[in-house]
Amino acid sequence: MHLILVRHGESLWNRENRFTGWVDVPLTEKGREEAKRAGKLIKGYRIDVAYTSVLSRATETLDIILEEMGVKVPIIRDQALNERHYGNLQGLNKEETARIYGEEQVKAWRRSYSIRPPGGESLEDTQKRTVPFFKNCILMDVKLGKNVLVVAHGNSLRSIVMYIENISPEKIPFVEIPTGVPIVYLMSKENKMIDKKVLNESNGQN
To answer: pTM above 0.90?
Structure first.
């Protein structure tokens, strides 16, 4: 069974280098192109069901991917897959925030496992909602023999990748999830990772 994770295409606030979180920001034209490219890259895979967050940048990316693949499948939308909530930082430019609070502090807010931004969620907090949903819903479909596509966000996916690959809190700050790049896991019947491919345009995988 295949489990495919895709971070949404570039959003307007990605382009403007702002903290987005739960603010519902649309895709840019580049983001739509990234979604189309993701659809082309996974066209050879069968998809039985798709999951996404309730935020439009993810739901639109999923719609574009499925359209590009020429398939229609059941879609489950749930806020458990929403991006990490950035609290008081939402809407702020990342470079300006680094000038105010210092680069190391902002880096800790963005990348660490347990440090919360002011009024927001840490990655650990995010994982407490993403992983139960992942185990109880998404992995149940995988266990039933379904190929599952999940389109979500940088940090909600980072928290799920951390669980799948058993990545430590010390190593997770170095894990990047690029926009519009499919991560394809081959899963066993026991929901263990057998293989992983990161698909790109140049050679289909790396």
So the answer is: yes
